[in-house]
Amino acid sequence: MQKTTYALIELQEVDYRLDELMEERGDLPLIVEDLKSKLDVKKSDLELLTSGVKENKLLVKNLEISIEDAKIKLKKYEDQLYQVKTNKEYDAITLETESVKEQLDTFETDIIENTDKIEKYIEEIDILESEIEKLNSEYEENTIELESKMRSTAEEENILLQERKIIIDGFNQNIIKTYEKVRKARDGMGVANIKNAVCGGCYSYIPPQKIVEIKKMKKIYTCEFCGRILVYNKAQDD
Questions:
Q1: Is domain 25-168 annotated with CATH 1.10.287.1490?
Q2: Hey, what long-range contacts does 164-169 have (CB within 8 A, 24 or more apart)?
Q3: Which terminus of the chain is more solvent-facing, meaning fewer CB atoms within 10 Å of its CB: N or C?
Q4: How far apart are CA 112 and CA 188, in angstroms?
Q5: Residue 55 CB neighbour total at 10 angstroms
Q6: What is the pLDDT of residues 78-125, one digit of tens each?
Q7: Domain ranges across the chain
């Protein structure tokens, strides 16, 4: 168990340094991730608006064709009015003429509505493109800065990660789970040294008998208050 205890101390030191490397990057990883997320949303909105412009332009084009067809029909019916010989024929052609005129009114109204939509979409596209350009500039700037910081610590980080892997290989999984769980909940500290009879994590009092048992390193003890794994470093007494 002594080997396990010393390994936990070493593991905590490695994790401390890894955390420091992460802290050196500051909020950059979160900033880059947030900017990427915003860019994806904006680009998706831009695609929808661009698609909307294309669809409405096609609708307008089809409506213009329908208007031309309707005008041809209307001219045909108007010419026929001069050739009718009975009231019944006149009424029938007049009815058809009114129907075509209603269609024309509907087509023209639809063209106006769709043209308005196109103009609105184009305005929104201009705004979005400006926002995307600004976001993209921020994203690239922060990404370059983050990559620069990552490159400067990459070698040390890789070494530490290899050391960490060596330490935990063959480690008791229950102990590792406890360590990881507590470390996550306690600001990165899963192991706490005892000094002056208190837990180095939460500063709670540790009874003398328990300290004696911890010094023997025959089993793993945790703080009753914060849950951290308790260890006793003889070097701290020097």
A1: yes
A2: 164/11, 164/14, 164/15, 164/18, 167/7, 167/10, 167/11, 167/14, 168/11
A3: C
A4: 63
A5: 14
A6: 888 888 888 888 889 899 999 999 999 999 999 999 999 999 999 999
A7: 25-168, 173-237
